Amino acid sequence: MTRLLFDMPPPNAIPVVGEDAAYPVGRIFCVGRNYVAHAEEMGNTVDRDAPWYFTKSAPNMCASGATVPYPPGTENYHHEVELVMALGRPVFQCDRAEGEAAIFGYGCGLDMTRRDRQQDGKDYRRPWDLGKDVENSAVLGPLTPAAKAGPLKGKRIHLSVNGEIRQDALLDEMVWSVGEIVSHLSHYYHLRPGDLIMTGTPAGVGPVVAGDHLSGGIDGLGEISLRLGAAE
Ligand code: MN
After folding, report:
1. What is the value of pTM for the model shown?
2. Count: domains in the chain
3. Which CATH number covers residue 211?
């Protein structure tokens, strides 16, 4: 085996409800706009022809419950609470049913966003990496296996900041179903275990500051929390 010049950290992993073993995080895909009310609050409309995506680097994941510094390079750091799905088997160019069957489990996550840098990307037609692929910005709660998750319909997704509710919606509001998303994305990637998909945020996104405590969850699919410390 090739000798490496220096050590790299092992992959991040997420706890799984009812299992001793954790789920290792490979790639993190994120759906751009999947709730009409959120698209509208950002001054956008939802493209109903097809979903679209950006990515976050797996090392930029952060486990729920952590305290992380307020990130550099922004004065408008936003919360986006989202349903996260984790794949359990390889799929390529699959249909909706096969896509849904490939989902290992679900959890609650936060797609933390430098909104000002994302806006730069829109204004100057640049990529979104500085806005979205932020250190500690893919905050992930424990996964509940799909077999134990029950129907997604009717489940409430919510987020509070310092105990005050900011985002409150039903997963029913998602424009693209989980099976449709996996199917669509599988026409661009050979999807595999370790792939996570953050499925977009409902309305109510907004800024957070150092000292804030974010807490939320999805009915039956676990909770999420994050504390923001001082900038470092
Ligand atoms: Mn998002």
Report:
1. 0.96
2. 1
3. 3.90.850.10
